[in-house]
Amino acid sequence: MKKPVFLDRDGVINTNREDYVKSPSEWIPIPGAISAMATLHRAGHQLIVVTNQSGIGRGYYSAEAVERIHLVMRNALKAAGVDSIHILFCPHHSRERCGCRKPETGLIDQARIDLGLPSGGWMVGDAHSDMELGRRSGLTTILVLSGRGRDQLEIIKAENSAMPDHVTDSLVSALDIILTP
Ligand SMILES: [Mg+2]
Ligand SMILES: [Zn+2]
Fold first, then answer.
1. Is the pLDDT of residue 1 over 90?
2. pLDDT in tens, 7-54
3. Which ligand neighbours the alpha carbon of 107 most closely?
4. CB burial class (10 A; 0-12, 13-18, 19+) of residue 19?
5. What is the CA radius of gyration of the chain?
6. Is 8 one of the catalytic residues?
7. Separation of 176 CA from ligand 2 center, angstroms?
């Protein structure tokens, strides 16, 4: 079984918005990202999207709006040949101190239970919290410089935090890392 690939959503699959992706019309795929996911799928990697959506907990949009956004994303993926995608999101405000807001590991723990995944795999994200989640979950981490990646890399360095295992431009270039034996 190929190693699962966990992906952050905003800034990796679709463009990040400082004011949150609140509706399907604000979900704009990053060029090449959907076909990159299709390439991973065809290569036999299970894809799991793990996303913090604290905009729900902050009252900016509803969980139902997130489900509608995810339907658009699922349809885009389906059109590219990805018939199985697991999507998990944390709806909580940071002050709720839940166990699923990245870098807490709840979403990955849940995905492993849901799908019976093997240990290990990849974490692709544009944020410090994604890298920390991956590190805590025993995943090989890839920071993409799309979305917030450039700023987040500066924060990681400034804080002297653990560096990501890999840094690359985007999900498209991350393919070279994941698919290289
Ligand atoms: Mg992100
Ligand atoms: Zn949560």
1. no
2. 999 999 999 999 999 999 999 999 999 999 999 999 999 999 999 999
3. 2
4. exposed
5. 15
6. yes
7. 32
CB-based neighbours (< 5 A) of ligand 2, an ion: 90, 92, 98, 100-101
Choosing among 3.30.70.260, 3.30.40.10, 3.40.50.10490, 3.40.50.1000, the CATH entry for 5-176 is 3.40.50.1000
Q: Which tens digits make up the pLDDT trace of 63-121?
A: 999 999 999 999 999 999 999 999 999 999 999 999 999 999 999 999 999 999 999 99
* 157 CA → ligand 2 middle, Å: 26
Q: Considering every ligand atom shown, identify the ligand nearest to the alpha carbon of residue 54 and give its number.
A: 2
Task: Specify the pLDDT at position 181.
Answer: 78
C-alpha of residue 59 to centroid of ligand 2, in Å: 14
State the distance from the centre of ligand 2 to the C-alpha of 179, rounded, in angstroms: 31
pTM above 0.85, yes or no: yes
Q: How far is CA 22 from CA 46, 62, 68, in A?
A: 27, 8, 10
User: 139 with 120: CB under 8 angstroms?
Assistant: yes
Q: Structural domain boundaries of the chain?
A: 5-176
The ligand whose atoms approach the alpha carbon of 49 most closely is 1
CA 104/CA 85 separation, integer angstroms: 21
